[in-house]
Amino acid sequence: AALTVRFLTRRFIGEYGDMEFIYSHTLTVDGREVLFHIWDVPNSQDQADDGSSEEKRIQWADSFVLVYSICDRASFNILPFKIQFIKAAKEGQGQVPIVIVGNKRDLQHQRVVSSEEGRLLALSLDCGFYEVSAAE
Questions:
Q1: 1-131, CATH topology level
Q2: Which EC numbers characterise this protein's activity in its record (predicted)?
């Protein structure tokens, strides 16, 4: 949620509950206005969901940004399963853009997932990869 709000408002708010939200935002990209609809689902809620609601969100979306914390190995380890689930649900719909984002780059002293691990995972799963800091 912090990363989404940072993208939408350029402000950082550190604490969020475990609620999902759908945001709409217009942005100019390469001289064209693009309307984004962002369905922001916290990971803790996602784990409590049944497969049908997760599949509903996957069918709704055209692309995916999966965010993990570089300070939380479990949030990284779940990514291959999430990506396999997305690809299986979108099978037959062509190439699905998926980007893996390592967040909390500003917390290097708490890092447990290396940048190289993130890059290699993205490469092996044919996804984009970035490391960012919502706080910065």
A1: Rossmann fold (3.40.50)
A2: 3.6.5.2
